[in-house]
Records
---
Amino acid sequence: MARVFVTRTYPAEVLDALSAHEVVLRDKTTPASRDTLIAALRDHDAILPTLGDMFPADLLKAAGPIRARLLANFGVGYNHIDVAAARAHGLAVTNTPGVLTDATADLALTLILATARRAGEGERLVRAGNWQGWHPTELLGMQVTGRTVGIIGMGRIGEAIARRCHFGFGMEVVFYNRSAKSPDVPARQLDSIEAVARAADIVVVAVPGGAETHHLVGAGTLAAMGPHAILVNIARGDVVDEAALIAALEAGQIAGAGLDVYEHEPAVPEALRRMENVTLLPHLGSATLETRVAMGLKAVENILALFDGKPLVSPV
Ligand code: DGY
């Protein structure tokens, strides 16, 4: 019987799908420690980790000879795993693409609408018991319908956001992608992130995380956006230079931001928490029950494929 180490509490269906094997469950909501992950690598055939369970090269080296052959990541993003180092230690890595596209795109729209229409401010006003009643100039926001959205990263999630913006809100879509793309929605590919920033009222960051996209959106992009514009990030926190974002917001260089991810999660800078024109969510992109079950089942499919000697379903 193969042994699988599961680093977190997952929906019950995920563990049920592994019932033919010995599952060692770390039934917790916080990331596993370095020592726990080293022990897991030594004593298990596969590990089902997720965001925050860090596998840098030095951890893999410190683990010495390992029994594990697979890190079946729960999540599409895998920037917490040094994939090259994992491979060098005989470990395959898989992720869960596709199944969280709609949930994450829905959340991008949540942030666009909430930030543009000042929903957070309104909610806080009502909740605090301070609402004095309707008046014609209260909390006037940006009308989203008919605006231009600029999407940075036209992968599966970027395309799903484009569809929602175009078909749902009649928005013009411009985008930046490092390779040529023809999304299934009318959209114009521009040749730089700055060009997207200049053209768009709302810029949405939807690229994968990792060294290649670290601080991809910095002071230059933010300056190009203009004082009416909104930045939304549903990708990885460090794709946006958070200090530059705070400076741009403080200087009124952009109108607001809708953030689901942060550079040093779960820390969220106090400066951002103080700002009324910023919508802050706790990395909820894929947080629907059906999506989290589907992500777990995709991770399990990869584990079962390994144990059955079949090709992995979604290797990275
Ligand atoms: C992912 O899958 O990478 C998300 O950020 C977690 O849902």
---
Amino acid sequence: MLDTVQEPLFAAHYRGDVKKLLAALEDEKTVTLVQCAPAVRVALGEEFGLAYGVLTPGKMATSLRRLGFDRVYDTNFAADLTIMEEGAELLARLEKNEGLPMFTSCCPGWVKYLEDHYPDLLPHLSSCKSPQQMGGVLFKTYGAELAGVEPGCVYSVAIMPCTCKKYECDRDGMDSSGFRDVDLVITTRELAQLLKHKGIKFAGLADGEFDQPLGAYSGAGNIFGSTGGVMEAALRSSLELATGVPLDSVELNYLRGGEGFRVAQVEHQGVQLKVGIVAGIQHVAPLLDKIQQGEADFHFIEVMCCPLGCVSGGGQPKTVLPQQRIHATQARKQALYRHDSGLELRKSHENPQIQQLYKDFLGAPLGEKSHHLLHINYSDAEHCGGDHE
Ligand code: SF4
């Protein structure tokens, strides 16, 4: 495995986004922040000879510090925040009985598909920014305030399993704080390549910690990386917040299949919801056609472009054989759920750092400040100004 090659030999071959990252890390006047998506920590180890699905958040935190990042935060924290906003939005739509079914909006490939092919259905799309963008805007506002740095000096990087996330970070409207929410997206593969070229032996690193408070997360935030994970995380919180009664079990196994389209009826304390989960963009058109014709009576639908969600994203480590790909993505998915079940904190609304964030900075979910910073009108924002190579 190529993990000890000296950096100067390869520096000339660094491409666009990796070059930009290195320039930011070398600039002493810049404060560099990084966030890591849930699906990255169950795949990055593969590039360094670890088995499929080995969970490596601690090694990831250490390796990012070795690269020179000033703060290492976590997209999982922002996933918990997304659930607070998206759950509140779902409950508001249910109360008014409008804009149903509500579609999730955390997959930029799906958002673009809807904009291009079914623009009349855009009012169904949640106005929430994705966890990547919510994390980005918070790091440059609340986070900058806590760290005592000027937001203009902050360079915010997201490590993602997804090439579409590069497009998302460059969309118009992703700058409601007055600064770009996220400055740069690096994929899992690009990070692995950079670590190898820097001679950082990932597999042998000691476990580090994420910086607090923007690195604290619940198991619900962690399962965002799998198909059905956003739905499960949202239901764990919204059903409990709507009824005041905890769920019998937070493990909603009936949402966890791998079929391209699956349906579930959910009941909790008299609240009844019909939900749909789409895994793989090729499965969405028949459903959207039915919604257009008024023949689908869903309340909430999760759509992810990739077959098993972000664990199988286009920026993840590649496998040679199709059978290896299936094995790898299944192992990554199982690792996310194992991580969730091993955590004490399983629900986004119980994350004490999220509660503190609302108390100290945001106010309430869907409040004025939250709406301004964390939501976007996707119907109005269709342009991308990116120049990625
Ligand atoms: Fe990106 Fe695929 Fe995840 Fe969508 S499902 S956000 S395209 S990795």
